[in-house]
Amino acid sequence: MVSVSRYEIVVKKIKEMIEAGELLQGKKLPSEIEMAKRLNVSRATLREAYRILEDEGIINRYHGIGTFIAKTPIIKSGMEELISITKLIEKQGMKPGTKDKAISLLQPSEKEAAMLKLSPNEKIYRIERVRTADGQPVLLCIDRIPEKYIHGDFKFDEESLFEYLHRDLGIFISYAISDVIPVKAQVADVYRKLKMKSKSSVALLLEQLHYDDKDDPIFYSSNYFSSEKFRFYIVRKRI
User: Fold this and answer.
1) What's the rounded Cα separation, in Å, for the pair 184 and 46?
2) What are the tens digits of pLDDT across the range 152-202?
3) How far apart are CA 185 and CA 109, in angstroms?
4) Which tens digits make up the pLDDT trace of 217-237?
5) Domains and CATH numbers, the chain
6) This prediction's pTM
7) CA-CA distance, 170 to 31, in Å (whole number)?
8) How many CA atoms lie within 13 A of 191 on its CB side?
């Protein structure tokens, strides 16, 4: 007979309380003393249960603020599918939007030039914007496109960069190579721009280099996703 640890029982009980509606998404939990008393366990056992629940994304703990039942992310996506943010938001039945857009023409950094295979005298357009879903800020996008791909003035007034490249420039994005990096939300002022709970919140950074069907690097993006509003998953198959 397999023995069940005390903290595992607490984890199961808290999950049952959430399912039963006794503990509500987004709501702050009672103090540790009160919860430990309510569940008839020590505070040490409760803290171990909280650690597991936090690892599973069921609760969020904020230093100096308290412990909250995590909200179900409003947007879910598979990591294996390359799709524009606009289409991704629309697939969830939500309206995509953009705010705080800034476009600048500048010299690339050493890293940007290397990623995009640019010569020293070539410039890039840098597009920074906050993407919204039904008016809520959900991610910060920073895209860099070599000036050589833009014909005339760069007038990007729509939601989807993929669509703009395909329709206006005849460039079809075929695939992307991505690095997935958890970062503190204080980086690039993400927590404020995405209205996250605190600077210590975690954002998910997708560094992506997008290629066309000729294997040419077209644009390089840094997308900071709010972990409070996005959840990514991946389908893994046994081979």
Assistant:
1) 26
2) 888 888 889 999 999 989 999 999 999 999 999 888 899 889 888 777 788
3) 23
4) 999 999 999 988 888 888 777
5) 6-69 (1.10.10.10), 75-233 (3.40.1410.10)
6) 0.70
7) 58
8) 11
